[in-house]
Amino acid sequence: MPKAILVNMAGNQVGEVELSEAVFGIEPNQTVVHEVVKNHLANCRQGTQSALTRAEVSGGGIKPWRQKGTGRARQGSTRAPQWTHGGIVFAPKPRDYSYVLNKKVKRLALKSALSAKAAEGNVIVVDGLDLDAIKTKTMQGFLNTVGAKKAVVVTPEVNENVLKSARNIPGVVTTTAKILSVYDIVNAGKFIVDKAALAVIEEVFA
Questions:
Q1: Cα separation of 148 and 183, whole Å?
Q2: pLDDT band of 68, cuts 50, 70, 90
Q3: Residue 44 phi/psi, 5° resolution?
Q4: I need a labelling partner for 150 at 20 to 30 A (CA). Which of 78, 79, 105, 167 fits?
Q5: Are 9 and 126 in contact (CB under 8 A)?
Q6: Can you tell me the distance from the alpha carbon of 89 to that of 120, in angstroms, rounded to the nearest whole number?
């Protein structure tokens, strides 16, 4: 049975928590995790790159010299790709890079990412993850105490104090228990989760 340390908001360890074997104890499938991360990055692409083909570059209407007799290579336009200021061969055009993955694949990848974090000892459960006020210094102090430079911080519901206290800290991402990103988990060093949020994760994804 995988376990994680339980800490308070002061960052002090107050116990241990047993994690669900079905969510945090499976054999990580690296291939599936790679596919989901690749899908996430593809879906993030704007796809707005564009260049001009020889049909779209201005100029070049007249044949630069006659076909034969000059000793030079035959040319039909000064806007062909081999000319300076010519068009681009196979020019990139705006397109949509996004694609859809199977739900079961995404779920397996999430469990794999969580299981890998648990196996590394990088899952930290907080007994009541909340702040009295929006204070980045307080949040940074907590993260420093638990040794988290890059982290995913998970709350049961949207918590304005936690969200706004952490949003200016580089490498820290906040989210809720029902909206977990495999990319964020893989990219983070620590997975910091509220005890109530952990119950939601185990209920939803088990």
A1: 17
A2: very high
A3: -80, -15
A4: 105
A5: yes
A6: 48
